[in-house]
Please model this.
Amino acid sequence: MAAAQAVRSKGIFLPADALISVVLPCLNEMRHGYLERILSNLSAQQGPKELIAVVSPCTDDTLGVLRQYPQWRILETDAQNRAQRLNAGIYASSGEIVLLHHPATLLPERIALAQIEALMVDAEVVWGGFHHSFDLDHWLLRFTSWYSSRVRSHYSHILYLDHCIFARRSLLEKIGGLPDMDIFEDTVLSQQLSQFGAPVLLPEKIVTSARRFRQRGIYRQALLNQLLKGMYHARLDPSWMNWLYERQSQINVAYKDQSQKIEIKPSEKKG
Model:
């Protein structure tokens, strides 16, 4: 891409070699074995980049590992959920494009950010992600990845965070960032972004951890996922749904008491 090239996209001037800000939300990330691989992967990505890790209070060595990577800017926060951590990172970032990185997912090596930059030069592209795959080979997980990449993204225009969603900063600012929800914040984000254009998926595949499927069992976790989607459409309280989803693993929210009871009530969210 020539240095003099630039594109005006939907009123936004995108210079060549545009800076991509990567926001990585962190909460006790040592347990699944992905953190150091993610940090190394992103540090080696080609092209101009800004790497930001947003860390809620941890009980493991997440901060210690992050501090071993000088390319990373570390923001310590009292954020209570993943959406709040991502919003803190968006607010602190400065790139024309922002990548919301899933905390247990690996991008294609070296070329991923360069591919995003090349794609976003297209004036019609405002947001997107990568094709999906799991790190565990099973027919149901292969189907889940295929459905997520080929069907849901095309017909519903919904990408989950483990597609590593990227979008123009101006658009994220316009919609006010992610909704403050403990779960399904990526669904509502997709619905809001889709008002401005359909997502475009890059052909390369990310690899995401199947940790929940390993922990609960593949069929049991798949059934719970479908149950939660029904609860979401019934507008139940996202805080209660997330407690049900991750009371054993506590990946997005840290619960002081795993046995605490959360009242079931209709969600106030309209997304």
Remarks:
- The first strand starts at residue 6 and ends at 9.
- The longest helix spans residues 139-156.
- Residues 1-13, 258-271 have pLDDT under 50 and may be disordered.
